Amino acid sequence: MPYPADRERDRPWVMRTYAGHSSATASNALYRRNLAKGQTGLSVAFDLPTQTGYDPDDELAKGEVGKVGVPVGHIGDMRQLFDGIPLGEANTSMTINATAMWLLALYVSVAEEHGADRATLAGTTQNDIIKEYLSRGTYVFPPGPSLRLITDMVAWTVSNVPKWNPINICSYHLQEAGATPVQEIAYSLSTAIAVLDSVFDSGQVPEERRGEVVARISFFVNAGVRFVEEMCKMRAFVRLWDDITRDRYGIADPKHRRFRYGVQVNSLGLTEAQPENNVQRIVLEMLAVTLSRDARARAIQLPAWNEALGLPRPWDQQWALRMQQVLAYETDLLEYQDIFDGSHVVEAKVDELVEGARAEIDRVQAMGGAVAAVESGYMKSALVSSLADRRRRVESGEDVVVGVNKFATTEPSPLQAEGAKAIEQIDPVVERHAVEAIRAWKASRDDVSAKSALDDLRALAKTDRNLVEATIACAKAGVTTGEWSQALREAFGEYRAPTGVSAASASGEAGAEIARVRERVRATGEELGERLRILVGKPGLDGHSNGAEQVAVRARDVGFEVVYQGIRLTPAQIVAAAVQEDVHVVGLSILSGSHLEVVPAVVDGLRAAGAGDVPVIVGGIVPPDDADELRERGVARVFTPKDYELTQIMDEIVAVVRDANGL
């Protein structure tokens, strides 16, 4: 988005809604409707199999196809996704990380079929794999090869797609994982340093084009409800980025040093209880990234009021879009210079954040940089501890959440009245159709061309040559998402990031309540003749592990022996671990909507393994009707975001264990 001259009325930011589900055809219709309503950019949500490099017919994809985004398995799906949308004129953001190179290759290939010149394409691939190791969990490859893929994309786009942002460094998910403002600034800028160092060290970009590389680095930022602090955070980001790019990399042109960012406001702060309160939260959080002209977002996408309940409907997304349009076109916000210049209060807060972030950046650099701080588990443990501290403050009432831990008395909501269908439901037939379609695609394509393109990719992956053109060749040859990813898995290997649970601390917990539950855990263990053991499992491809990690930390704090193996496990793997570790209870955490498929598979698997007496509990975004069905299928308890008191949840888990053992 071009910046105006100093005295011009500021231009509105690019307005997006994060959208995509079910199929390329359904998502295309949704995009067209959103564009007709005044949306000025597209923001594509891909489903978890696409994000983690699996085809719809893979075992790990079961229950996940089309749930949290659109499945894109090959170039045919990409053609359908953008049918009738001129890509030479579009501004498209794609939330994709591990498979970012693949999705960009599909996008470029389809744009060329539209007759668009590569040089005209504008948009963004998120492509921040470091935060995936820390928060969302949709990584595939180890950090080194992942950084190599990012480096290749940055170098290639600067020469071939100069309007494209090849990476959207994501502080958003760091805040979701618990980051304080200082940590959010420091860890995302440390990631940017790691990427720029890698690109410049690769020798793929001539010295005179370094400024162009820096100018295409964008950020994706979170804005919480403490909107004054969040606005100051954005001003701190601007100052630090300008300093780093000038002093570390010698970028002379101030335009190249601009901090360019898009934002989605804080979904973590949206509540299942009294969800109508989420509307004012979203508006206040939007102010954090728009009030300060010198630190204003250039693209905004807002969540819908009901995202803590499930998938928003088109009407909900329209409501979120209208919030942006009212602010941009009805108010006088864009008519003024920065209204905070000269504020002693703001400058003091910005100075405080800059100083704290600089110290943390230096700490990370002393460890060897962002990649080393991921591999050591340092950053993950720091985030898990910060999130544990945030939960403690909410549970104690120190941090007020309206409608949750204070002012909880409420009238019935007409937005959720019986028959209102307050969320979008994905028909299970979507997955079956996707499985059939991917098999039909493979049967109808030219297998010789596809195999040849994959062989070329594998061979190049063993060298240090750029992989983008080979990936585009795969896209045009009809290779699938799973095949492209598998070829690179064979070359690079796979990776399991540190969970951060073992080193995390949850200091300052409410001592009396924890002590009471800890005594109950101890006494129950004595009655059973052994220490209580809980397995915390993440079945399927859902990598949002924050909740599971907090459950694991609190279970450990109240005296359970905790078995937590991280994300992306099949039901069979969870069953095998539960039997091998002889646990007393299995807790499953799912936020992707796949609970009706993967949870019964675990329950049935335990029965088949002779461990049917081991109770299963579930936590996640589970609509009430689905919770009833899970209980009918044998689940002992279902916890949702409204159940925020973790120590109370631990107490209920002890009750479940006692009941299952006849105590």
Secondary structure layout:
Elements (H helix, E strand, L loop, with lengths): L13 E3 L1 E2 L4 H13 L5 E4 L2 H5 L22 H7 L9 E5 L4 H14 L8 E4 L3 H8 L6 H18 L3 E2 L1 E4 L1 H5 L4 H21 L8 H6 L1 E7 L3 H21 L13 E5 L11 H12 L10 E3 L12 H16 L14 H23 L3 H6 L2 H19 L32 H16 L2 H15 L6 H9 L4 H12 L18 H18 L4 E5 L8 H12 L3 E4 L6 H11 L3 E6 L4 H14 L7 E5 L3 H9 L4 E3 L6 H15 L3
Parallel strand pairs: 1-10, 2-3, 3-4, 4-5, 5-6, 7-8, 8-9, 9-10, 11-12, 11-13, 13-14, 14-15
Helix pairs in contact: 1-3, 4-18, 6-8, 8-10, 8-13, 10-11, 10-13, 17-18, 17-19, 20-25, 22-23
Q: Find the structural class using helix and strand composition.
A: alpha/beta
Uncertain ranges: none
Total number of distinct structural domains: 2
Biggest beta sheet attributes: 5 strands, parallel
Oligomer: single chain
Q: How many individual helices?
A: 25
For the record, what CATH class of the largest domain applies? Alpha Beta
Level-2 CATH architecture of the largest domain:
Alpha-Beta Barrel
- Helix coverage percent: 40-55%
Number of strands: 15
Instruction: Provide the CATH topology of the largest domain.
Output: TIM Barrel
Pfam families: B12-binding, MM_CoA_mutase
Subunit structure: Heterodimer of an alpha and a beta chain.
Domain B12-binding: 531-660
Protein name: (R)-ethylmalonyl-CoA mutase
